[in-house]
What we know:
7% helix
Amino acid sequence: MPNLRFLCLPLLLLLMSSNAFAEGFALTEWSARGLSLAGGLVARADDASAVAYNPAGITQLPGVHLMGGMSLITPYGQIESRDAAGRTRVTFTNPGAWFPPHMYATWQLNDDWWLGFGLFSRFGLGNQYPSNWPGQYAVYNVGLQTVSANPVIAYKVNDWLSLAVGAELMYLNIFLESKIAPITLPGQLAPFSRLENDMNLEGTGFGVGMNAAVHIRFNEQWSAGLTYRSQVTQNVYGRVKYGRQDQATPLGPGRSLPAFLDSNANATVQLPDSAALAVMWKP
């Protein structure tokens, strides 16, 4: 019964909070240094997190390198709405915390080839609103979480140019909670009323993508990097549950209200591609 339109709602609602101090639902919190340099690690490779920022840069890491950690993200937002009478109401999101993890490893095979592996999150976050806020019939709790496993191989063409390619295996979890508005309709013999209900949708998916990168080291002071990550198509399967089960209600010949019964849900969600270009100057 439920389809893609239900799974698109979380992506739209994640972008509604203008004060979230984040990039919608795209994440680049893949290391403390990478976060503080605002993407500068695309052009430099100081540690194994280059697997996520620019895997071509791992050719600057001799031997074996290991790294791990997590980030803390606390989304915050507010929405201003007006009712039919023109009255303004401000709704604040409920406090929340997200902890996207990251782990990396790089291996130097010889003077020309390197292997790398990363485990990190490219997309995530969510918002929770009071269950009685004006948009309760669209959503009051929404979230999207992904974890990507990214094996890469890098080739050092010469002392100034390196290339890399990799595969991305992405797991996705998505959830959405909303209210279903009460319905009062005139029947043929007597008025009919259906009470307010709750809907909970949760699903998981898996998709495969690829990435490619270039790292150029002009000299000891200047370097540049370019990295691309492809779209990932997720085949999502899940379950829709209702706070109260209601059978289909006939309203007359050829007319009825749909049933609210727990059911399976499936959809295809395409997460966007991304590209990053950076130039680094070291004084």
